Amino acid sequence: MSLNQKYIGLGNQPNAIRELFAYGQARKAEIGDDKVYDFSIGNPSVPAPQKVADTITELLKEPADVLHGYSQSPGQMGVRQAVAGNIKRRFGIDAQAKHVYMTHGAAAGLAIAINAVALPGEEVITVAPYFCEYKVWTEHAGATLVEVPARAGDFQIDVPAMEAAINEKTAAIIINSPNNPVGSIYSRENLQEFTDMLRRKEEELGRQLFLISDEPYREITYGDEVPYVPCMYADTLVCYSYSKSLSLPGERIGYIYVSDTMENADEVFYAVSGSARDQGYICASVLFQRVVEACVDEPSDVEAYRANRELLTGIMDELGYEYVQPQGAFYLWVKALEDDDVAFCNRAKAHELLLVPSSCFRSKGYARVSYCVGADVIRNSKQAFADLKAEYDA
Ligand code: PLP
Q1: What pLDDT digit, counting tens, does each position of 92-123 carry?
Q2: What spacing in Å lies between the alpha carbon of 341 and ligand 1's midpoint?
Q3: What mean pLDDT comes out for the span 175-182?
Q4: Other C-beta atoms within 10 Å of 179: how many?
Q5: Is the pLDDT of residue 2 over 90?
């Protein structure tokens, strides 16, 4: 048998978040939906905008062989033009459709982007805590993922620590703002200091340092500005997704934008196209490409998440939990009540509170609470959070 042992291992490795979610489903069937407080997964609780359904209804009147047919590998030109137009209108960059590659969500976008710019033996750096699949995609390229902890206290990019981690093997840096799992947004000052440092390092090392900006939560914000990275740093690849902004996670649609500010954007776009081809990520769903074309300027509805954020942080304040004030995305990063975050989450589980330990994101001492749930789940969970706290206070 010549099966790939690495993939057997990867396929067989349980994903802790999905396992917890599956446990929650089973537990709900056992004791009732309203008795389990499942804060495990980041599945948007806000429905997709009505315009999405209306667009699909209209599109279904088109000839099926076209609507359900293949597009060119990077996507339909009209769709890429619509995305480029949106970038231009919003951020003032002269974005060209030829640098937009439609992908199967940010997951495929990141796998493509990382493998386009990183070579075997090179390093890709990211800020910890982070979305753990970065490691899988980096290792697919034969490169190593290097973790640099976020700045203590405010979870911004620790620029001096990042600078110390960059060396002649560094191919790329992945950042994610608004951030999963912390909910932080990197400020303009922080990004300015960071990108100034990157430019200096590019000169010093005589090589391009690619910045991969993972942006599925760009629209999920509560007032803070999310600076557009290509406006600050030329060598940027944006990995965007409609999973959260249009609540379409199951439809697998997003894009990579190779910044037009990049001197060799055409060449990097070829590398993106080649990486996508190599991994079989060509021609994202044409139906959903067309939905994006029609809904590209549709605003995201964040009011339910905002209300949940207020409700949850209010409960945390009242009960005396410490947490990072969430600026974006729909996650609350709560300090565990003991050093061992896994033990803490196990004790929470005994109160039917399903929280994800921070070690799932390569960080210690916290738990992630996904508040993209019905408000009732948060309201009804208050007693369980109180009982958990009382257990530690006793
Ligand atoms: N990056 C981060 C930080 C995420 O949280 C997620 C999904 O939750 C992804 C990437 C992948 O998103 P998509 O559904 O677009 O593949």
Answers
A1: 999 999 999 999 999 999 999 999 999 999 99
A2: 23
A3: 98
A4: 28
A5: no
Is the pTM for the entire model greater than 0.85? yes
Q: Give the pLDDT confidence of 335-349 residue by residue, as tens digits.
A: 999 999 999 999 999
Phi, psi dihedral angles at 328 (to 5 degrees): -160, -175
Helices (H), the chain: 5-12, 16-31, 50-59, 64-67, 77-91, 105-117, 133-140, 159-165, 188-205, 265-279, 286-295, 303-319, 341-349, 375-393
Ligand 1 pocket test, candidate residues 110, 180, 247, 330, most atoms within 8 A of CB: 180
Distance 24 CA to ligand 1 centre (A): 21
Compute the Cα dihedral for 182, 184, 186, 190 and give only its sign.
Answer: negative
Which residue, 338, 327, 339, 326, is CA-closest to 368? 326
> Residue 226 has which token pair?
């999310």
How many other C-beta atoms can be found within 10 angstroms of the C-beta atom of residue 266?
12
Q: Are strands 353-354 and 100-103 parallel, antiparallel or unpaired?
A: unpaired
For residues 276-315, b (16+ Cβ closer than 10 Å) or e, as one string? Answer: beeeebbbbbbbbbbbbbbbbebebbbebbeebbebbbeb
153 contacts: CB under 8 Å, gap ≥ 6: none
Bridge-based pairing of strands 323-324 and 331-335 is antiparallel
Contact 348, 388 (CB under 8 A): yes
